[in-house]
């Protein structure tokens, strides 16, 4: 259970960290506000999952200890969320892939037999649906905008697609949680994810990537090199003052 | 820059190169709760109506200030001219108000 | 009212008389009312400068979001910086009712023809600066903004009411950061004192030049744009803030600071106005970076805005 909750939490924290760095860098003031909203939602979800994970942790770590004291090899987020914000298209496409995954994920988890998890998922589901509206709206605008935006959006889709399968990667221990109706079965989520992707890409007049290559490993701490830059920045103040209260 | 333009502007103006660099302006109306009307909250810039409504949600309802939003292109608002406000709004007809009428105290509240 | 005399044919004379009457009655001037050109220009300049300040103000605090030392602080700081963007937007919205477009306002900020508050040209160098900025910079801003909720231009006053409601959380979270730090490790307390040392004088300068040297104050007060002078507001801020610093156990970096029993106010030392004007004129520690950052975000976003417009057509 700890591992499952940490994966949920880490996905959200690492994505929130990426989004938080974009404030005051967006194409319009309105978009600064929008991206902060989405980042805050993910951060809130991460904090909920960490607090709950704490109850299953033999070391009794709190949310900050989970976030600030684990190393790159101990983070179990999917590699997609750590990918950098090359341009607005990458930000929007990464968000879209995450949202297309999180909506069905939270739909299933909202009916989890674990009531605490179900409650957290039900709240997160509302947020994820809103995010999907935002991100798919932008994928369509960019895909169907100018030739430059179309090209940039297609590049982002092609670049980020190989990191999507990692979202669904599980652990052998998940089987039991799935059987108990606690966790979501990735095999159930995948078809809805695929439907969302193809519907939105079609409307955006973008190509679905055909390259079968997928980069896995995030769930076991085998990350891309980007995470090793993101974490030290995030953890720097906390680690420089061991034991301090903030 | 000229300040002579009519104070309510809807269209996106051109920059120095003659190209618009931002988005059109939208007026935002928020219903604070069921049972109340939508009230003007402010304006914002957005490429289209869907995006305007979404931005309005993020900008004007960050603290649960609303349950419903209207967005209207600012250029679609036609406002009355304050110079003729006297002619439009100053014609009082006292007999339209309940206090114009004397009702005997014995009748009570009416 | 006698000024709408039918024999008067000069619309600006009628307008001027109505404008004067509105101000005299303490009623608000609204967007489509006639107003003197100078009033309109002053309003645009002031609201734009205020909006730009909120927008540029995202940067010094945004600088620490990715490094916030706890997830709770990260959430609070993100929400606060997001509020700054929102406040910038409320104010641009008010400025636009005066007939200036967002594009023009952006352009004037980017080209340096319009200013923003000089306070944001100082760097944030440690986490405790998030405390000091909230406590002192937002504290000073609120002192000014509370006055502006009663300003004569309706859309500006309404924006300020909304902003003041939201900003009190900003100052409180800043003070709470300071309080946590002074009660923390010796290193944390030293950081807090260092932050106060660096932000105290720039915060006092935020109220603008002394009344004697302030070119706009008299006219602004006559027009009901400002209701109190720079020096009055500055004094109010000092009187309010010094006891808070004492509560924190921190030393205000002013050897001349003392309580005057007779006046019931604190006396404080001379502000270095040469430094203030140098920063205003563009030679502060961060002026160039702040504008470069803003311009880059705007230019990087050009293709996105173009796509948005193209798709809408």
What descriptors fit this protein?
heterotrimer; A: about 250 residues; mainly alpha; Ferritin; 10 helices; C: about 325 residues; two-stranded antiparallel sheet; 13 helices; 2 strands; about 65% helix; about 0% strand; disordered N terminus
* Percent helix of chain B: 10-25%
Count of distinct strands of chain B: 3
- Category by helix and strand content of chain C: mainly alpha
Count of DSSP H/I helices of chain B: 2
Radius of gyration of chain C: 21 Å
Largest sheet descriptor of chain B: 3 strands, antiparallel
| Relative strand content of chain B | 15-25%
- The chain-level mean pLDDT of chain B equals 82
Rg of chain B = 21 Å
The side-by-side strand order for the widest beta sheet of chain B comes to 2-1-3
Structural class of chain B: alpha+beta
Largest inter-chain contact set: A-C, 49 and 49 residues
Biggest sheet overview of chain C: 2 strands, antiparallel
Low-confidence stretches of chain C: 1-6
SSE ordering of chain C: HHHHHHHHHHEEHHH
Output mean pLDDT of chain C.
Answer: 93
The geometry of chain C reads as: globular
């Amino acid at each position: 259970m700890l591992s499952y909750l940490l994966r949920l939490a880490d996905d959200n924290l690492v994505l929130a960290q990426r989004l938080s760095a974009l404030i005051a860098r967006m194409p319009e003031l309105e978009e600064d506000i929008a991206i902060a909203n989405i980042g805050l939602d993910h951060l809130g979800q991460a904090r909920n999952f960490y607090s709950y994970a704490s109850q299953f942790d033999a070391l009794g770590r709190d949310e900050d200890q989970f976030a600030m004291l684990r190393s790159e090899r101990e983070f179990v987020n999917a590699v997609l969320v750590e990918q950098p914000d090359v341009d607005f298209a990458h930000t929007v496409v990464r968000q879209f892939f995450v949202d297309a995954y999180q909506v069905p994920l939270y739909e299933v988890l909202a009916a989890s037999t674990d009531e605490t998890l179900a409650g957290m998922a039900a709240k997160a589901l509302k947020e994820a649906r809103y995010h999907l509206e935002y991100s798919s709206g932008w994928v369509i605008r960019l895909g169907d905008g100018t030739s430059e935006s179309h090209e940039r959006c297609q590049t982002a889709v092609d670049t980020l697609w190989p990191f999507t399968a990692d979202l669904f990667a599980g652990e052998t221990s998940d089987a039991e949680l799935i059987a108990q109706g606690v966790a979501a079965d990735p095999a159930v989520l995948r078809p809805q994810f695929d439907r969302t992707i193809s519907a939105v890409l079609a409307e955006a007049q973008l190509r679905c990537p055909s390259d079968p290559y997928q980069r896995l490993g995030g769930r076991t701490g085998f990350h891309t090199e980007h995470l090793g830059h993101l974490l030290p920045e995030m953890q720097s103040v906390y680690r420089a003052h061991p034991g301090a209260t903030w | 820059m000229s300040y002579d333009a009519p104070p309510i502007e809807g269209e996106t103006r051109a920059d120095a190169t003659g190209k618009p660099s931002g988005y059109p302006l939208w007026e935002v109306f928020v219903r604070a709760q069921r049972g109340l009307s939508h009230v003007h909250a402010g304006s914002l810039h957005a490429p289209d109506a869907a995006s305007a409504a979404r931005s309005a949600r993020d900008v004007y309802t960050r603290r649960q200030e609303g349950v419903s939003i209207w967005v209207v292109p600012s250029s679609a608002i036609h406002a009355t001219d304050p110079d003729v406000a006297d002619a439009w709004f100053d014609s009082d007809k006292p007999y339209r108000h309940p206090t114009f009428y004397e009702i005997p105290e014995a009748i009570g509240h009416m | 009212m006698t000024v709408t005399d039918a024999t008067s044919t000069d619309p600006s004379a009628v307008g001027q008389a109505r404008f004067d009457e509105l101000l005299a009655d303490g009623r608000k001037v609204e967007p489509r009312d006639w107003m003197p050109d100078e009033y309109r220009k002053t309003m645009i300049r002031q609201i734009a400068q205020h909006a730009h300040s909120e927008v540029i103000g995202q940067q010094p605090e945004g600088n620490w979001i990715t490094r916030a030392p706890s997830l709770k602080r990260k959430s609070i700081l993100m929400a606060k910086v997001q509020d700054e963007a929102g406040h910038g937007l409320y104010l641009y919205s008010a400025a636009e009712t005066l007939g200036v477009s967002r594009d023009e306002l952006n352009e004037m900020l980017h080209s340096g023809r319009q200013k923003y508050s000089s306070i944001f040209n100082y760097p944030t160098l440690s986490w405790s600066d998030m405390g000091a900025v909230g406590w002192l910079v937002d504290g000073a801003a609120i002192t000014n903004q509370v006055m502006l909720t009663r300003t004569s231009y309706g859309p500006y006053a309404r924006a300020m009411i909304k902003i003041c409601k939201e900003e009190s959380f900003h100052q409180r979270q800043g003070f709470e950061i300071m309080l946590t730090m002074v009660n923390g490790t010796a290193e944390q307390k030293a950081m807090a004192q260092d932050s106060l040392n660096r932000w105290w004088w720039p915060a006092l300068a935020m109220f603008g030049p002394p009344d004697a040297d302030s070119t706009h104050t008299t006219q602004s007060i006559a027009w009901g744009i400002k209701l109190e002078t720079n020096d009055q507001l500055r004094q109010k801020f000092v009187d309010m803030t010094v006891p808070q610093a004492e509560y924190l156990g921190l030393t205000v970096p002013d050897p001349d600071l003392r309580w005057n029993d007779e006046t019931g106010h604190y006396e404080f030392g001379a502000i270095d106005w040469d430094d203030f004007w140098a920063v205003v004129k563009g030679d502060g520690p961060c002026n160039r970076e702040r504008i470069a950052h803003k311009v880059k975000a705007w230019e990087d976003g050009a293709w996105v805005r173009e796509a948005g417009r193209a798709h809408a057509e």
